[in-house]
Design goal:
Elements (H helix, E strand, L loop, with lengths): L1 H8 L5 H52 L3 E5 L11 E5 L12 E6 L7 E6 L8 E3 L5 E2 L10 E7 L2 E7 L5 E4 L17
Antiparallel strand pairs: 1-2, 1-5, 2-3, 4-7, 5-6, 7-8, 8-9
Length: 191
């Protein structure tokens, strides 16, 4: 009798039931993919802004620790695009770019595809950079006494994160959708 009951309970799903389950799963997946993509873009942007913020704080800490000017610059040849990565270094040869004679403190690789940036500092002329003097103040690469502050903005999938550096060199990350005093440049046009 027990063997008969087991045979009756071991029925599989019919083809129609499998098709219905697959169709429902496909519909739910189609609805969820745009939200998933937006969530991935937001997380990539948070990670990128966190990495860049960390590099800014590292440059400032190294400048204070070494009592020397430390620079953070984009890695692309023109010195314009932060999404290509960046380098924290002491510019020993004075050429404004990291090279063999310089002390390289840290290097970061490219950001995820689709992340764009704008740079709006008191000296907006390229090449872009952020420099700190031995007192931990933001400065120009030619004069430790000249204050240099501004906003570095990152964009991805409609989301924005800004890193604002004040006259004293203190940096903060903000989101214009949620934070006051988080103004900055508009997103650049897509490539």
């Amino acid at each position: 009798m027990l063997a008969v009951m087991r045979r009756r309970c071991q029925h599989g799903a019919t083809l129609a039931e499998l098709v219905v389950v697959i169709a429902v799963a496909a519909i739910l997946l189609a609805i969820g993919i745009p939200n998933l993509q937006a969530m991935i873009h937001a997380q990539q942007l948070r990670a990128a802004s966190g990495d860049l913020f960390g590099a800014i704080n590292l440059a400032r800490a190294q400048a204070i620790a070494r009592n020397e000017r430390v620079k953070l610059a984009p890695r692309d040849p023109e010195g314009l695009r932060w999404n290509q990565g960046w380098t924290v270094f002491l510019d020993r040869d004075g050429d404004g770019a990291p090279g063999p004679g310089d002390d390289i403190v840290a290097v970061h690789g490219p950001l995820p595809d689709g992340v764009a940036s704008t740079f709006a500092f008191t000296s907006p002329a390229p090449p872009y950079y952020i420099a700190y003097n031995g007192a931990g103040r933001s400065c120009s690469d030619t004069s430790s006494g000249t204050a240099r502050w501004g906003t570095l903005s990152l964009f991805h999938g409609g989301a924005i994160r800004r890193i604002k550096i004040n006259m004293l060199g203190r940096a903060r990350v903000c989101d214009p959708a949620h934070d006051d005093n988080c103004d900055g440049a508009q997103a650049p046009p897509p490539n």
